[in-house]
What does this fold into?
Amino acid sequence: MKHFITQGNITDALVEDNIKNNFPNGIDFCYTDPPWGNGNLKYWKTINKKMTSNDSSLISQDELEDKIVDLITANVNNYCFIVYGVREAESLMAKFKQKQNVTDIQYYEKTYANNQKNCIICVTLNKADLMDFSFLQNTKGLKSLSLICEMFKDKYKTVLELFVGIGYYLKVLDKHGFTVVGNELNASRLEKALSKVR
It folds into this structure.
């Protein structure tokens, strides 16, 4: 299956150009896990400087969230699911609430490694049907993505994944027959991701 994934800084024009050039009518839904919290953001900035020679130290969590929200609300037609930090969720949800084409936002806590808590933010966009996503409450690891894939596999075809990483989400999405559009900053991590779906 062909996927459309760029390598570079999420703030670069190439990311949105890739979306609009390949899917000018928009992408069906988004499922992504952006960097959150000081540790993740610091890692993201370090990799950005190493991979692109750009000093991203001036990019704040606030500015990164703005970019994420803008890319999603401008290019996703139906739903968005963002795995995020519990402490950071309020800020991100407030940014989505400011967008006119956001019709619903739901928040559910979930669990990742070592039983630590994170959350999933479920955003309904445009004229998509309002749905109850409470079945995602307390899901662990990739279970929430698998449930979404099962729900949408006969209805949707394209998924936006803005932070591909080493491809855990990509592998699940590919297995369920979705075309993934997205980006990864680190070239070596992207290569590992793509090796999972070859």
